[in-house]
Amino acid sequence: MLNPLCIISEVNPVNRIDQVFGELRASGSTALIPFITMGDPDIRTSVDIIKTLVQAGADMIELGVPYSDPLADGPVIQRASERALRHQISIVDCIQVAEDARNAGADVPFILFTYYNPVLQLGLDRFFELITSKGISGLIIPDLPIEEDEEMRGLAEQAGIHLIPLVAPTSHDRVKRIAAKARGFVYCVSSLGVTGVRSDFHAGIEEFLQSVREAASVPIAVGFGISSREQVQRFEGQADGVIVGSAIVRKIEEVLPLLADPGRREEGLQHIHDYVSALKG
Predict the structure, then answer these.
(1) Nearest Cα to 128, choosing from 109, 142, 114?
(2) Distance CA 111, CA 99 (A)
(3) Most distant CA pair in the chain: distance in Å?
(4) What is the DSSP letter of 4?
(5) How many Cβ atoms from other residues are within 10 Å of residue 172's Cβ?
(6) pTM for this structure?
(7) In whole angstroms, what is the distance from residue 116 CA to residue 227 CA?
(8) Which of 230, 281, 231, 223 has its CA nearest to residue 249?
(9) What is the rounded distance in angstroms from the CA atom of residue 152 to the CA atom of residue 142?
(10) Is the peptide bond prior to 41 cis by the omega test (within 30 degrees of 0)?
(11) Nearest-angstrom CA–CA distance, 58 and 54
(12) pLDDT by residue (tens digit) across 240-263?
C-alpha cells in the first residue's frame, strides 16, 4: 500500500515556502516573516491577527506553539505562552489555526514553531498526518539538534514539508553541516541568548550571514531581536528574509485590552497592522 504522505508529496511537489521566496527573488524583495504565539489571547483572535499580518504585508508566518518551558524564548514570548496555556491550547489547536486562517483568506505559507516534546506526546505519525492535511509548509523545532533529527527530517521530506534549521555563530564546519541539510531556508540567529527585542546585535553579524549564505543552497533568513524598520532595512541586503517575533508579540500584549473589548477589537487589530506595515515599509 502506498504511504499517504508520498501521495500528498507527489500531488503537490512544490512547497509554498519555495514559491514565495522565488517570487520575492524575482521582484528583488525580502520576505517579512512574523512570529506569533497561537492562542494568545485565544484561538479566534489568533486567526484574526494572522489575517491582519497578511494584510499588513507578511509573506509567511510562524505559528508558535505555546510551551511551558520555552528554553529559546525570552520573557515576552514566555508571557504569551502562559496566557495561551491558561486556555489549555494544544498543539492540535495550533495546527488547526493554519487551515482556519487560510479559509479566512490568509493565503501565505505557515511555519509551525514548536518544541519537540509536544510533537512526541502527539506521536510522529499523527503529527505529520495533521500538519500535512492542514497545510503547514515548514517546521522549526529549536530544541532538536541536527545530530538527532534524522527521523524527523526523513518524515518531513517524505511529506514535502521543510524542516528549517536554526544556526547561531559557531564553527565554520558546523555552519556548513547545518546549511547542507537545510530545506526551505536557514534561520540565522542574529543575537546570542534567547529571543527578545534588542537595540544591537552581536559583533560580526555581517560576516556570519555571509558565511551561512556561502554554505547554503537555500535562502537565509535572520531573526532574534529585530523590532524596527531600520533593523529590517539593515538586513534586507544580506538576507532573503527577516523574522520578527518578540516585538510583534509585545505589540499584541499591549493591545490585549482592546482585543477583549468587542467595541474596540478592530482598533486593536489596526494597531498590530500599522506596526507590521511599518516594518514591511
Answers:
(1) 114
(2) 12
(3) 56
(4) H
(5) 10
(6) 0.91
(7) 27
(8) 223
(9) 13
(10) yes
(11) 5
(12) 999 999 999 999 999 999 999 999
Please say whether the beta carbons of 240 and 185 come within 8 A: yes
**Residues 226 and 190: beta-carbon distance below 8 Å:** yes
Tell whether the model's pLDDT for residue 5 goes beyond 60: no
Structural domains for the chain:
29-164+239-280 (3.20.20.70)
Cα distance between residue 143 and residue 241, in whole Å: 22
Number of C-beta neighbours around residue 141 at 10 A: 21
CB 225 within 8 Å of CB 197: yes
Strand partners, 186: 220
Which H or E run includes 73? none
- Residues designated catalytic: 62, 73
Q: What sign has the CA pseudo-torsion 145, 147, 149, 153?
A: positive
Q: pLDDT of 106-155, one tens digit each?
A: 999 999 999 999 999 999 999 999 999 999 999 999 999 999 999 999 99
Which segments within the chain are labelled E, that is strand? 31-37, 61-64, 110-113, 136-140, 162-163, 166-167, 186-189, 220-223, 241-244
d(CA 243, CA 194): 14
Q: Would you tell me how many other CB atoms lie within 10 Å of the CB of residue 104?
A: 13
| Cβ neighbourhood burial of 120 (10 Å; 0-12, 13-18, 19+) | exposed
Q: Is the pLDDT of residue 7 over 70?
A: no
Cα 252 from chain centroid (whole Å): 16
Specify the pLDDT at position 161: 97
For helices 150-159 and 4-11, the axis angle rounded to 10 degrees is 50
- In whole angstroms, give the CA distance from residue 40 to residue 44: 9
| Strand, helix or coil for residue 172 | helix
